[in-house]
Structures are given as C-alpha cells and as structure tokens.
Design a protein that fits this description.
By secondary structure, the chain is α+β, with helices and mostly antiparallel strands. It has one domain: Roll (Thiol Ester Dehydrase, Chain A), CATH 3.10.129. The strands form 2 sheets. A 6-stranded antiparallel sheet has the order 1-2-6-7-8-5, with helices on one face. A hairpin with a 5-residue loop joins strand 7 and strand 8. The protein starts with 6 loop residues before the first helix and ends with a strand.
C-alpha cells in the first residue's frame, strides 16, 4: 500500500506547527499508518531531576499519531485529537525521545492509535492511546 501523504507534505505540515518547530521534532519513518518522530533533547524541556518533562512525550505522541493518520486519509489538517491517554513508565534523562505511532483502526469517523516513546537505547518510556475525530 502506498502512503496517502508524501514525506515532503508531512514535513510541510509539521513546519506549520509552532510548537513542533520550537521543539525541533525530526520526522523519521513514515508510511501505511505509521510515523516515527524524534524530539531532540533541549534544556527548555527539563523538569526537576534532569528529566524530560511530560508535555514533550504527549506532544510527540499526539503529533506522531496525527501524521500517521495522514498516511491513510491524506493531508486533512483538521483531523483532531478526541482523547489521548498517556502512561509514564520511565523518564528520559537529558536525552532525545523517539516516538513510534501506529493507527490501529478507523471506523465511524474515528481513528484509534497507539504510540510508544523510547530513548536511543530502546528503553520504553511512555505508552499512549489516542482517538482522533476525522473531518466529515
């Protein structure tokens, strides 16, 4: 199956998001309901203890799911998050965070997805479940 969005268009969509630009997310794998994004480590994301703050993981997962969805439905920018559940398992300590998102299914105008964030060593940091509402 061919992705319904090109890598160039996915990058354009990411470039339109001010928070994504500020955090410097880097597009990795893309295609067939999947997207991998990396959040490079930045001092501004730290919380006490030298840990990367929770909003980084949640934003990274949300955006990765959004782009993964675009590989199936095409570049429909107004697909919006209806629900995002995050389970924090371990903290990244002054390091990049890599998120892989997968679309689990689409039915009744809703898309369901899973995402996981890991560090470069492959340690699982967070798990996410997301539901997106698709535009009519």
């Amino acid at each position: 199956m061919t992705a319904a969005i090109t890598r160039a268009r996915a990058q354009e969509m990411l470039d339109e998001l001010p928070l994504v630009k500020l955090l410097g997310f880097v597009l990795g794998e893309l295609g067939d309901g999947r997207c991998t994004l990396t959040a490079p480590f930045h001092e501004i994301t730290l919380r006490p203890g030298g840990l990367v703050g929770g909003p980084v993981y949640m934003t990274l997962a949300d955006v990765a799911v959004w782009i993964a969805l675009m590989t199936i439905v095409g570049p429909k920018a107004m697909a919006v998050t209806s629900e995002l559940t995050t389970s924090f398992l371990r903290g990244a300590v002054r390091e990049d965070v890599i998120c892989e998102a997968r679309i689990a299914g689409i039915a009744g105008g809703l898309a369901h997805a899973h995402a996981e964030c890991r560090n470069a060593a492959g340690t699982l940091l967070t798990r996410h479940m997301a539901t997106y509402v698709l535009p009519a």
